[in-house]
Design goal:
This protein is mostly beta strands. It has one domain. 0% of the residues lie in helices and 35% in strands. It has a four-stranded antiparallel sheet with strand order 1-2-3-4, with no helix packed on it. A four-stranded antiparallel sheet has the order 5-6-7-8, with no helix packed on it. A hairpin with a 5-residue loop joins β1 and β2. The radius of gyration is 13 Å and the shape is flat. It starts with a strand and ends with a strand. The model has no long low-confidence stretch (mean pLDDT 91).
Length: 101
């Protein structure tokens, strides 16, 4: 399965995505993508963030979606090799950084 590394706007690795599941860098499950878009929901069903390219940030206000349903716990994922830092980018006007998931 392909691992997609996700960074905050400062270029710090904060999460990785495998399929529709999001994991924190140590491999613990942090959320999932229940819809066919880039919105990530935490296991408790609350909006966690939005993925754009290789960046994860929180939109303010959060996007409106219906009930996310109930996720299937995927278990922890083996920790991937840490990636190189990414470049610094500006955040979208209505977004804030996520320092860690």
């Amino acid at each position: 399965m392909v691992v997609h590394y996700l960074y905050n706007s400062s270029g710090v690795w904060i999460a990785f995505r495998v399929g529709k599941n999001l994991f924190e860098p140590r491999g613990e499950w942090a959320g999932w993508m229940p819809w066919d878009d880039d919105y990530v929901v935490a296991p408790d069903g609350k909006y966690l963030g939005t993925i754009t390219g290789n960046r994860l940030f929180r939109l303010n206000p959060p996007p409106r979606h219906g009930f996310a349903g109930y996720p299937v716990y995927p278990g922890p994922h083996p920790r991937p090799q840490p990636p190189e830092a990414a470049t610094v980018i500006p955040l979208p006007e209505t977004a804030t950084d996520i320092e860690a998931v």
